[in-house]
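To whoever picks this up:

The parser on our side crashed when reading a file containing two proteins. I've narrowed it down to the boundary between the first structure block and the second sequence. Both blocks are reproduced below exactly, byte for byte. First block:
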Amino acid sequence: MYSSTFVFKAGQFDDAFHRLDKEIAEAARAIPGYLGEETWENASAGLIQNIYYWESEAALLQLIEHPAHLAAKSQQARWLDGYRVVIAKVLRQYGDGGV
């Protein structure tokens, strides 16, 4: 399993941002190999994290190469006050099943 974590500091969002954000989320969910997502916010630091989980690196690359993702990436300075992306190979996950 792979994860792609998009950490960002929000700037000024407009209709174009919300449209692209929705299009990217819908595209991700439609890719075979998409396993799920989570969003977290650290209000004190002003950071938001969107984490997507993937069955394979090939599935993840489909989102990275999607036209909506490329459009958002090329325009990120319009909407964000900084960002970071972390791509990771997940070795294991475990818990008590309650989450």
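<<boundary where parser fails>>
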Amino acid sequence: MRILITNDDGIDAPGLKVLEEIATQLAGDDGEVWTVAPAFEQSGVGHAISFTRPMMISQMGPRRFAAEGSPADCVLAAVHDVMQGNPPDLVLSGVNRGNNSAENALYSGTLGGAMEAALQGLRAVALSQYYGPEIRDLDDPFEAARLHGLATLNALLERGVWTRDDYGIFYNINFPPVPAAAVKGLKVAPQGFRRDMGFGVQPVHSPSGRRFLWVTGAPQQQPTVEGTDADLNLKGYISVTPMRADLTAHDALEALRAIE
């Protein structure tokens, strides 16, 4: 199996090293693992692409490249340049430092890379490690992802739903914020929503008097509706959420026929 890996934390991020280990095991002795990842951190860029400027790409080693762009850019660079003519069998994005459960998924560059791969007709999975008090002091905060990642991916490849329609399914995996031994299992879950929370801005002034705005986040330990991704993660489960890039609110279409 030929596997492409990318992320949004940058090519030197520890989570990418974890993903490389997982991908190497998954690819097998006869497989290949290719890396095309952002040269710098790209957290929060979502599915952005560098449409108005070129991006430099540099080879860092055998089958290893850094691109000055977003995770979606990296997938485009891999498919249409680095691996042109021989695309990957699977694209993995992550392992993100921090969860991409609930509304975080909408901002995630990690998911942006997987989404672009799906739009390119490729099987794709995003992987993220939820952070929290129980793993903060571990020598390896990615322990749950490192030890359970291969089995989770194998389960998806063997029994997951993979489509080749216009907006093909891709997967969002979040590993819980607990030590690997405390992981309770795997649950398929819908995307949740953290109510009364979200991103905002905090104004600050520089020493020169200029006014800047820092984007602020929110506590990540508030559960979502029971049975959704973040709720299950906080209860110690790995969540697997099937996703599509189609943004249509299909449940509202019929009601809107009245305006035609």
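After patching the parser it read the second block fine. The longest strand covers residues 90-97. DSSP finds seven helices and eleven strands in the chain.
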